[in-house]
Amino acid sequence: MPVAPPAAPGQLQAALLALPRRDLPWRHTRDPWAVLVSEVMLQQTQVARVAARWSAFLDRFGTPAACAAATVAEVVAAWAGLGYNRRAVALRAAGAACVERHGGPVPATLADLRALPGVGAYTARAVLTFAFEQDVGVLDVNAARVLARAVAGRRLSGGEAQALADASVPPGAGWAWNQAVLDLGATVCRKRAPACGRCPVAQWCRWRAEGGPDPAAGSAGTGGSQTAFVGSDRQGRGRLVAALLVGPVAPADVAGACGWPEDGGRAGTVAASLVADGLAVWDEETGLLRLP
Fold first, then answer.
1. Do 142 and 284 belong to one domain?
2. Based on the structure, what is the number of domains in the chain?
3. Is 39 a catalytic residue?
4. Fewest CB within 10 angstroms: 34, 98, 104, 262, which?
5. Range of the domain at 184
6. Does residue 40 lie within any of the structural domains?
C-alpha cells in the first residue's frame, strides 16, 4: 500500500498529542524535586522498577533539604534495588546544592539545573518541561529515535537532534508533547521491531515514506548496547554495596562480598571505585570499609 508523503509538522504533532499516555505516578505532579527524583531514578532503570520505589523514596526524602540532611547510607538504603548507586549519592549532593545555592528549591533555569551534581542535558530539560512546563525538547534514547525516524528521516548529529527536539515542541504544549514522544519511542517506535502498523504517526513518518536504512542507527542520542551485567564490575559493586548496607566489611572479606573470593585484586579495584564515588569510606579507627 502506498505511503503518503510526510505531512506538515502540525499534522504529525496533532496525531502524536492525541496518543493515550501511560499512567505513570510522576506524571501526576509538577513538584520539581519529585520530578528530578523520578528522572534520576529512570536513568538506565526500567520504568516498572522506578514506579515501585519512587513514592517510598519521596516519603522519606520529600524535599532537597531532607535528602541533603540524610547520610549517604540512609539515601543508598532507600535507593536499594534501583542499581547504579552513585546516582543516589549524586541526588543527595544535588539536594545539598539546591539548599546552598538556591535557598532550598530546585532551580528553574537550564544553566542552574545543569550545574547540579548528576544532572545532565536530558535531565535538566526534563525538569524544565515536566515540572515547570517550559517548551523545551527532551532528548533521551526514545525521543532521539522518534525524531530521527519520523521527523527528520535521517541520522542526526548531537546539535541537530537537540535543535530538532526543541523546534518540534508545539507552543504551550511542552509537557504533553514530550510525554507523547517518550511514550511513542518506548512502546511503538522501539529500537528493534518497531510497531509501525499501529503507530499513530506512521502515515507522516519520513523513514516509512522514503525507506532506506534505519536513520536511528548511529544517530545522536540513540545510544549503544549496554555491556552484560552478569559477571561485570557493576554486579560486583552492587553486591558489595548490599553487604555494606548490612554492616562494615573487613578488607579480607571484600572479595567474597563482591562474589569473587579468588580475585582480591579485582575486588580491591571495585572497593576503590566505591570510595572514589563517595559510596564508601575506609574507617580509620576500625580499618573496615563502611558506608559514609
1. no
2. 3
3. yes
4. 262
5. 9-21+137-210
6. yes
> In this predicted model, what pLDDT tens digit does every residue of 53-64 receive, in sequence order?
999 999 999 999
Q: Render pLDDT for 191-224 as a digit per residue (tens, 0 to 9).
A: 999 999 999 999 999 999 888 899 998 877 666 5
Q: 3-state secondary structure string, the chain?
A: CCCCCCCCHHHHHHHHHCCCCCCCHHHHCCCHHHHHHHHHHCCCCCHHHHHCCHHHHHHHCCCHHHHHHCCHHHHHHHHCCCCCCHHHHHHHHHHHHHHHHHCCCCCCCHHHHHCCCCCCHHHHHHHHHHCCCCCCCCCCHHHHHHHHHHHHCCCCCHHHHHHHHHHCCCCCCHHHHHHHHHHHHHHCCCCCCCCHHHCCCHHHCHHHHHCCCCCCCCCCCCCCCCCCCCCCHHHHHHHHHHHHHHCCECHHHHHHHHCCCCCHHHHHHHHHHHHHCCCCEECCCCCCEECC
Residue 2 has pLDDT above 60, yes or no: no
Place of cell 522519606: 60
From 39, 74, 284, 285, the catalytic residue = 39
